[in-house]
Write a structure and sequence with these properties.
The structure holds 3 protein chains of 3 kinds. Chain A is mainly α. Chain A is built from 13 helices and no strands. Chain A has 2 domains: 32 residues; 224 residues, Orthogonal Bundle (MetI-like fold). By secondary structure, chain B is mainly α. In chain B, helix 3 crosses helix 13, helix 4 runs parallel beside helix 8 and helix 8 crosses helix 10. By secondary structure, chain C is an alpha+beta fold. In chain C, a hairpin with a 2-residue loop joins strand 11 and strand 12. In chain C, helix 3 crosses helix 4. Chain C is elongated and about 75 Å long. The two termini of chain C are 20 Å apart. Classes of the chains: A mainly alpha, B mainly alpha, C alpha+beta. Chains A and B meet through helix 1, helix 2, helix 4, helix 5 and helix 6 of A and helix 1, helix 2, helix 4, helix 5 and helix 6 of B.
Chain lengths: 282, 289, 332
């Protein structure tokens, strides 16, 4: 799959081989050390710096920034839109995955490719794509630039693949026997879906939803052209962070960034827990 | 007298057989199919095709002219070099960390895996800010680095760092599940046959993960080439002809009403992205084998 | 090249996989480590191979202390239950692997690989990938691969566990013949007592991390030292308070000296065997006869018969009854 769903290695598995891969041999310890240094230099230390910088002006400074009307509005808008988009993705993503796995029609391969396009496309190009479709020169007369609906559509565009690619492999692996048994006992198609299939898909749907939410909250490139950056109206958090950086307020930018960072971490933890829970039920 | 009709046996086509096995052909199926295709078609396909149309609206030569602008060419050069460096570095890191995560046990393994995943859900703007805070002139390391004459932010190293940040997890996420599935027995067998750790790694481990590695590299490359937000922050949009990547160029040209160049560069980026997707689609079955 | 282990202990967390295990395996023998799943036999094998290390104790191969040597340095051959075939290499390259590692000249490798492929009857598959072979063929390849480097010791971890019954039987015989030809000290792990009885020169029964008994198949079958060994190596039933094998019970259709009366409650014909369940008072006894014997006696359901242990029946060691539990032999 193109969309990379974070998968923690089977740490909890009690496979016998775990016993023999043996603690840390000398070579592995060196490798671990190097990897940690690498990871720290590129990711961990910089992100820590964000958290530290946001405390530049102490707790009060932090809260002042976050509760300033513009920032609060931006955060509300960002999270609100992300939630709505996620809900739509849950429904449509599951449907799309269902059709991909259980149906067959000419051109399905191309269809699969198209689904992955928003993930592989550079975000600024996505922005241009959306602008040409929904901007002032829109061929279908939809002028969504500088509107919240525009943001909604843009986020929908970039998050198309996440739920689909999360659900698809689970749907493929699903044992049809249980569905057939239910049908033989008299259950209708919808009931079979609701009671037999859906419960098995829920962890995957949830993981995909979490990824979709995280992406929607942090999206920048596709919004920068279309959303218009109107404070209180169409300014999302990531755009606000940039404008704070550009107006030489790194502390403020760091504060808002920290909020987004917390959302990102919580999302990852949620996905990890979901996958562990799903693995235990399997 | 009743005439016995010969039984009509039409043999089902292969597709019909497949569909029957998958669950029947009802009207619901068709409705879902059309709904889904329409959704993706309208949301994704149409706008993308529209951009292609816009690009070549006035013919091929204006596009060519725009793409051969020295600033544009330089932007592609910068983007290409930075992406190549970051992909190679992440490849080495990715394979090494995957081996560690799967073949060794140590305290904090799950935590390490989670931390590696961070860049996947962090906003690119946040990533850019984070890098500036550490490697910028007033940054934690920036002051020292600049003392040594080494500039990171607003320069190529910064772009490399930004693209490494966002594509860090990609190789690891592809290789780890394959390593787990291949299992440790082949490597143990090689050991009993006398192979040293290095020989086992080169002759047995690497070949068994080669398709997963390729997949991860293509993903990382696509991501690096297309990174916008983090790079923009780290280069402040970049100086045309010097530190401006293609993505920053697109935004800048569009803002300067040079739509043609913006669309032309975008088209090239989109084409590369689709090419990466096609390569991935070809590799996918081999990875799954 | 004998193998010797002394006072081996291995714990995984608070699970004791092996407790104070000491064992001598004779050079040139085909020895089976037999026991139930989770009993520690695979762990022991892996410790001998160097794929695992004991918490305490010593492993010696041919008089040399190898306890802390890596597998590469022990000159062993190891065959895994799931073949561990190098999936990206064809059969030839798989078998040649150990020799290529040792940088042998190409001509020598070629000769040796072909010699081995002939030995395992896989010459015509030299170009195939493991995925194109059946399970049995893959395991034969794995054996050839292990033998290619002329190991001093050959270790097999449930080598036929992943195969169909019929293939398992064939390969079992084939392993015996191979051993007769090649004469390498071989140790294999199995939980199938029929396999161990059929193939090995010597059997080591391992249960719950300890060695229960060591001996030839006949010794173990006829003179088990405790209830566990007796029950594991073959069928057991109780008659008159002692453990006895169902086929060691004589059936008479009239009272005889020393026989007890019994009433047949169940009769089952399985192939040439006839299995009878008979009630003696409140006890149920299992008896096994041949078809000829059963027909001669006119055995039918509900009939009354008289049961007596055959002369020379093995009865679980001197004085072994169901009431007393023998202690496992710790000094073995």
């Amino acid at each position: 799959m193109v969309v990379v769903t974070p998968t923690a290695p089977a740490v909890g598995s009690r496979r016998r081989h775990d016993r023999e891969s043996g603690g840390l041999r000398r070579g592995s310890a060196v490798g671990l050390g190097l990897s940690l240094i690498w990871l720290s230099l590129i990711v961990l230390i910089p992100l820590a710096a964000v958290a530290v910088k946001s405390s530049d002006n102490g707790w009060s400074g932090f809260w002042t920034t976050l509760s300033s009307p513009e920032v609060a509005a931006a955060l509300r808008l960002t999270i609100g839109e992300a939630l709505v988009v996620t809900v739509v993705n849950v429904v449509m993503g599951t449907l799309i995955a269902w059709v991909l796995v259980r149906d067959d029609f000419p051109g399905k391969t191309i269809f699969e490719l198209v689904i992955d396009v928003p993930f592989a496309l550079p975000t600024i190009v996505a922005g241009l794509v959306l602008l040409s479709m929904y901007g002032p020169q829109s061929p279908v007369g939809l002028h969504l630039a500088n509107t919240r609906v525009g943001i909604f559509v843009a986020l929908l565009f970039v998050t198309v693949p996440f739920v689909v690619r999360s659900v698809e492999p689970v749907l493929i692996e699903l044992d049809r026997d249980a569905e057939e048994a239910a049908a033989s006992l008299g259950a209708g198609r919808l009931t079979v879906f609701r009671r037999i299939v859906l419960p098995n898909l829920l962890p995957a749907i949830a993981a995909g939803a979490a990824l979709s939410f995280a992406r929607a909250v942090s999206e920048y490139g596709s919004l920068v052209l279309l959303s218009g950056n109107l404070p209180f109206k169409t300014q999302v958090a990531s755009v606000k962070i940039l404008s704070l950086i550009e107006s030489d307020n790194p502390g403020g930018a760091a504060a808002v960034a920290t909020v987004l960072l917390v959302v990102a971490i919580v999302t990852l933890i949620a996905i990890d827990l979901l996958q562990r829970w799903a693995a235990r039920r399997a | 007298m009743v005439r016995a009709e010969p039984p009509v046996t039409s043999r089902p086509t292969a597709r019909q057989l497949r569909l029957v096995r998958r669950g029947g052909q009802g009207p619901g199926r068709l409705v879902m199919r059309y709904l889904v295709v329409a959704y993706v078609g309208v949301l994704v396909l149409v706008p993308v095709l529209l951009v292609g149309w816009h690009t070549f609206e006035h013919g091929l030569s204006p596009v060519w002219h725009a793409l051969t602008d020295p600033d544009v060419e330089h932007a592609f050069e910068i983007t290409g070099i930075a992406s190549a460096i970051s992909v190679v570095l992440n490849l080495v890191f990715g394979v090494g960390v995957s081996l560690l995560l799967v073949r060794s046990r140590f305290f904090g393994r799950r935590l390490l895996s989670l931390l590696i995943d961070l860049p996947l859900s962090v906003s690119p703007v946040v990533a850019g800010l984070a890098l500036i805070l550490v490697y910028g002139s007033n940054g934690w390391f920036g002051t020292t680095l600049e003392g040594w004459g080494f500039q990171v932010i607003y320069a190529l190293p910064g772009i490399v760092l930004a693209t490494m940040f966002v594509s860090l997890p990609l190789v690891v996420r592809e290789v780890v599940p394959v390593l787990e599935e291949v299992g440790i027995e082949q490597e143990q067998a090689a050991t009993t046959l006398g192979a040293t750790g290095r020989q086992t790694f080169l002759r047995i481990t690497l070949p068994s993960i080669k398709w997963a590695v390729a997949y991860g590299v293509v993903l990382a490359l696509a991501r690096a080439l297309g990174e916008f937000g983090a790079v923009k922050v780290v280069t402040a949009g970049g100086v045309a002809g010097s530190t401006q990547t293609v993505t920053s160029l697109v935004e800048q040209r569009y803002g300067n009403f040079d739509q043609l160049t913006a669309y032309a560069a975008s088209f090239v980026l989109a084409a590369i992205a689709v090419l990466c997707l096609v390569v991935i689609t070809i590799i996918r079955p081999k990875e799954r084998r | 090249m004998g193998i010797s282990v002394r006072n081996i202990n291995r714990n995984f967390g608070d699970f004791a996989a092996l407790t104070n295990v000491s064992l001598d395996i004779q050079s040139g023998n085909l020895t089976a480590l037999l026991g139930p799943s989770g009993g520690g036999k695979s762990t022991l094998l892996r410790i001998i191979a160097g794929l695992d290390h004991p918490d305490s104790g010593v492993v010696e191969i041919d008089g040399r202390d190898v306890t802390w040597l890596r597998p590469q340095q022990r000159n062993i051959g190891f065959v895994f239950q799931h073949y561990a075939a190098f999936k990206h290499l064809n059969v030839y390259r798989n078998v040649a692997f150990g020799l290529e590692i040792r940088k042998r000249p190409k001509a020598e490798i070629k000769a040796r690989v072909h010699e081995l492929l002939e030995l395992v009857h896989l010459e015509q598959f030299a170009d195939r990938l493991p995925s194109q072979l059946s399970g049995g063929q893959r395991q034969r390849m794995a054996l050839a691969r292990a033998l290619a480097v002329e190991p001093k010791v050959l270790l097999l971890d449930e080598p036929f566990g992943a195969l169909d019954t019929k293939v398992r039987r064939e390969l079992r015989e084939w392993l015996r013949r191979l051993h007769d030809e090649v004469h390498v000290t071989t140790v294999f792990v199995t939980h199938d007592q029929e396999e161990a009885l059929e193939v090995s020169d010597e059997i080591v029964v391992v249960n719950e991390g300890r060695v229960e008994q060591v001996g030839t198949p006949d010794q173990l079958y006829d003179q088990p030292v405790n209830e566990f060994v007796m029950g594991f190596l073959g069928p057991v039933t109780t008659l008159g308070g002692s453990l006895i094998r169902p086929h060691d019970i004589d059936v008479h259709d009239a009272p005889v000296d020393g026989a007890v009366e019994a009433r047949i409650t169940k009769l089952l014909r399985v192939g040439f065997e006839v299995r009878v369940d008979a009630e003696v008072g409140a006890e149920s006894v299992a008896v096994q006869l041949t078809r000829g014997q059963a027909d001669g006696l006119g055995i039918v359901d509900g009939k009354t018969i008289w049961l007596r242990p055959s002369a020379g029946a093995s009865s679980g060691g001197p004085g072994l009854t169901t009431a007393s539990k023998a202690t496992p032999n710790d000094d073995l």
